[in-house]
Prior knowledge:
The chain is of the alpha+beta class. The protein has one domain (7-266): Creatinase/methionine aminopeptidase superfamily (Creatine Amidinohydrolase), CATH 3.90.230.10. It is built from five helices and 15 strands. It has a five-stranded antiparallel β-sheet. Strands 1, 2, 4 and 5 form a four-stranded antiparallel β-sheet that branches. Helix 1 (7-28) packs across helix 2, helix 1 packs parallel to helix 5 (249-255) and helix 3 (117-134) packs antiparallel against helix 4 (143-155). The longest helix has 22 residues, at 7-28.
Amino acid sequence: xxxxxxxxxxxxxxxxxxxxxxxxxxxxxxxxxxxxxxxxxxxxxxxxxxxxxxxxxxxxxxxxxxxxxxxxxxxxxxxxxxxxxxxxxxxxxxxxxxxxxxxxxxxxxxxxxxxxxxxxxxxxxxxxxxxxxxxxxxxxxxxxxxxxxxxxxxxxxxxxxxxxxxxxxxxxxxxxxxxxxxxxxxxxxxxxxxxxxxxxxxxxxxxxxxxxxxxxxxxxxxxxxxxxxxxxxxxxxxxxxxxxxxxxxxxxxxxxxxxxxxxxxxxxxx
Length: 270
């Protein structure tokens, strides 16, 4: 079932999304070489609970943490651990918050220390593809329009789009219909109506599109072990212009003028 949310429900989701954005910022403050990823998870869990929320991921289908922390060639669903971030890594932080009965979901990928220019461009372009996809989340379009926009933008740089993992509806449940692939054809898929809430989340690989799942049943890696980037917003479908419910504002206040900052100038460099 695809849900159409009322203005009151969307307002509740915005509150959840604000806590989520601030939780991301608390994590961003700690990202640097030498930090264990389990410490990032602890900070996020504490912040969410202290602000009246529940970590959406903790215990979801027995997932053991509040954050999915995915480093380098891990696409998504990485476990927090004793792994210490290293100079040159990239790390995706995916987080969800349930508050007032509604979930919000977002992800951001950070460069750690001195990351190669080519990898920084992957991050910048993946982030840009998120906003290009979000632009299509308007009433009258179809889900395929979102995926087509993301796919055509990223593939022109030689990147590839993960097929096995997709965005999704979100609301009272963390994952709801419809699925929102990051690839597709214009004019295909479920029609979009005002009040639908979508988690749009490009997962873009530097190399081949193929992925493999680790024995833990969760961790997804690129098949060629090349890096992958992941950005995500929770978005309300509107007439004429979509409404982004989650925010990177608090993250970017932390990363401004630091090595964590992903600059627009990196988008179009060959």
